[in-house]
Fold each of these.
Amino acid sequence: MSQTLDSILDDASSNMKKAISHLETELSRIRAGKANPQILDGINVDYYGSPTPLNQVANVTTPDARTISLQPWEKNMLGAIEKAIIASNIGLNPQNDGIIIRLYLPPLTEERRKEIAKRVFNEGEHAKVAVRNIRRDGMEAIKKLQKDGLSEDIAKSGETKLQTATDKFIALVDVHTKEKEKEIMTV
């Protein structure tokens, strides 16, 4: 019985770590005024009929703090890359000179910074909801074990450990969102 309890706690902790890593990924995609190639993660280009990640059809570099440069491996991919960037709706206009595609990041206005900070807050809330859902599932599994014969003391101990892990991961979400918000609001 206690091995089952340990596996419930381990699974919950593992899933909470996944929720945090998902939050980190989402926050890295939010641009904070500085050019970051991760903004383009998740954009797929039509490469001879199959959707292919952008970084697999072009060299992505940041020559300066406000520019992302894309040099396709094949020249005929310029149009497809441009279409994919426009369709991705990331708010950047590709500049195609026939050899390289450049994305210029405009300086952020105060209003835009606040809008992005709200998005960061929303991502943090989604992560907190995910962590709480994992806690709820773990608590239900512990209660089911208790009905199947697990002693009340061991069950309460397991619930306490699960709540402690939840509190730790919720605090971690707050740390990540505060850091990103500070990065965005810094002029």
Amino acid sequence: MDQVWRILDAFLGAAIIAASGVAASQAHAFLIQYIDLLGGRLNEATAHLNNVQNGLRYRLMSETVRKEAETAAQNRVADLQEAYHAMADANVLVKPIAFLRRADSAMLANAWQDFIPALPRAADGIFYAVVAMIVGFLLYELVKLPVVMLVSEPRRRKFRRRG
């Protein structure tokens, strides 16, 4: 019976390690796809700002209406630039934190809807997968420890009599 428990323990540990690595690699793929979407939105907003500043349609509007549209477009470009550069230019350790701080819920929904799972090919994705595998293993061992202590029988010491 002891052999069955060891096999089950090895299987559960391997499953958790694999699931952690896959989850982290897919989280990295999602992050890359979100940054791509953010870059596309930034390009769109920049083109719109250029249109507001130089387009004939906006030149025919009253000055106050055009200035309001231009200010709104400038604010949108500034917000998107700040979010894009915070994520795209961050190093491998800070990138997930920047993503969590800067993610927009509407763009997250769009990115999730269009998400395509991918295998990690970049060093960042492999790094996240390996770190997640190690963390998953450590968490498994941490959760397993109290269970093993509760289930295992206390060992009794045998004392020799000196005589």
Amino acid sequence: MIRVVLPAHLRTLARVSGTVELAVAEPITQRSVLDTLEAAYPMLRGTIRDAVTQERRPFIRFFACGQDLSDDPLDDPLPPEVIQGKEPFRVIGAMAGG
């Protein structure tokens, strides 16, 4: 099982509390995790990625094992710790301001 941590506003929208656990088909990549997440929680479609282009929305970042994966290719395998369920895949709402 892949564990996904969502920001509070997306947990509210998806009506979940805490970490989401997903059975993701291999290969386990950012794309496959996000596809599975959106299939399980259709109300999240278009909130994390653009519904048409499938590109990451501005101010959304992806992290795993303390690394920012936001600019990595979507089809690169996730770290083994995420695949093994030891570490979560984190969706973070980035902050901006001045």
Amino acid sequence: MGWGASKAAIIGAIAGILVAAAIAMTTTGADAKATYESPYGYERTWNAALRLVRVDNGWKISEKDQANGYLLFEYRPPSTTKTTSGSLELVRGRDGDSAVSVLVQLPQMPRYHEQVILDALASKMRREYGDAPEHKRPPSDPPQEPPRDPAPDAGDDNKD
């Protein structure tokens, strides 16, 4: 192999490294998050989430605030003893809606870890509380009667 061929190989390797570095710099980090819409209401969802994290999985809770709806915990994946920080957030539905959005974030882990936690929460709630309650819509205005057809005209009163 001559000098020209080795030059081309070196330039090709450098170009490959530069392309890989450019791709790595432009992609986002592990900013994954997964959500679940819980139809069980805020109180039930909060209690089940707290028990799932602390009792069922034995993860240490570093901070919790029920009024604002968040848990910070130390997540330990099943395959290792190393822990990483995680958060679980509950967001109340609008306008008295009983649905609650549950958001799990494990920034240092692949997204499927977050989804596994949410699936476990949904399963736990079905086991403990039964089937999800039906979504209740706020009552709308009472139905109004359709307009009646006017009475038929009896004819002209001024007829001779």
